[in-house]
Fold this sequence. Notes:
The N and C termini lie far apart (58 Å). A hairpin with a 7-residue loop joins strand 17 and strand 18 (301-308). The chain is built from 16 helices and 23 strands. Helix 4 (136-146) crosses helix 5 (150-156), helix 9 (246-253) packs across helix 14 and helix 10 runs antiparallel to helix 12. Strands 17-18-16-15-21-22-23 form a seven-stranded mixed sheet. The protein has a six-stranded mixed sheet with strand order 3-2-1-5-14-13, with helices on both faces. Strands 4-7 form a two-stranded antiparallel sheet. It has 504 residues and is α+β, with helices and mostly antiparallel strands.
Amino acid sequence: MADYVLAIDQGTTSSRAIVFDHSGRIVATGQLEHDQIFPKAGWVEHNPEQIWNNVREVVGIALTRANINYSDLAAVGITNQRETTVVWDRTTGRPVYNAIVWQDTRTQAIVDELAGDAGAEKYKSVVGLPLATYFSGPKVKWILDNVEGAREAAERGDLLFGNTDAWVLWNMTGGVDGGVHVTDVTNASRTMLMDLDTLSWREDIAADMGIPMSMLPEIRSSSEVYGQGRPRGMVPGVPIAGILGDQQAATFGQACFEVGTAKNTYGTGNFMLLNTGTEMVPSKNGLLTTVCYKIGDAPQIYALEGSIAVTGSLIQWLRDNLGLFTDAPDVEWMARKVDDNGGAYFVPAFSGLFAPYWRPDARGALVGLTRYVNRNHIARAALEATAYQTREVMDAMNADSGVDLTELKVDGGMVANELLMQFQADQLGVDVVRPKVAETTALGAAYAAGIAVGFWKGEEDVTANWAEDKRWSPSMASGERERLYRSWKKAVTKTFDWVDGDTH
């Protein structure tokens, strides 16, 4: 009897494997970080082979710590950093270039060329996304245009593309020896190449980007059996039966199944998703329209998404680049040493600004400085930046949906920071709710896989397993709330127009 489901969470900074039992409880975890590669300003890369090696190792760690083996697993689910682009040779299994990460901005010239006179919203009515460096399609074009021999190999049909979900799945199911080249609707919806209505690749947009259709994975639902673990792999014969992009996985794990429910994940960046049901809601306020999930043959569910590029990675930057502290959780200890931000505002536009601005010309700024400001104020300003950016996204969601959010479910690493959570509730003016299992990204992928093989019945089991851990309610006076937010909005304007036309 298989009593567990394994989730592989291939994230921006690390790969994790988590074993869950039927109650949705974490049994054991394995985790390894991978290298963050910065060849030039604005370029961010990962080594796909290092990622694959780490995935294999963390699966072994998790199974060992759980004191089980592959025969105890009902299924495996995969969740992943979206938009991070891998192109590899189907005959050798080797990547032709490092993975280009979602934060990478090198494709700005390609994006501008594609936009032409039509502008950034050229494809938005079809794909739900503005033309931006964030998404996978322009990254594929950059690889084909800049890696020697890549375009010729692609035209021969030798190259495959996928976000990291497709790379992991292909290797797990056999690689060069019969590996399955598949992605799910949530990942496909982040490429700029999928029609949101038909859930199929658009040949015309792929042609605009010079991407042969033979490179693209088959698009499948988020919950079905795609294949089995390869015979001599770490989970031989186990069904691999769920794929969800990380933010959609967290939405699923948070049981946001009702129209109008929303969650916010606090990770490398922040990502708020609002379930809009079977209706696609086009955004007029700087949000993305995306596929939330599709369970087997059931109709696809859509979402509005507000994507924020830099939140948790700002805390990493303070630790690694400035040496302000040695452990990321220390930022809360520092921030609590002062009563407020001392007038300082930190706008972390390291990759430009994502939602709701979509300003690739923006760069980071620390403003409002006086001799009074010290390192503790800067730590607090960095935390507050996460809350302010989240409020901007919530305001846009309320405007697009026409319904004001009444509470926000939260997850991700930063939700352990209680100072941030209280300030978040104060800025939003609604309750902020943390679940007992904060690893909702991996949990969502586990649920999708388990539902596909009958380990869980469906959404009702997910809802039954969800439990509240802690709730923060607003306590700040409305006048103070608005004064702080007004200063934040002013600070954001100071980041605009930094990158000139001759800046590379």
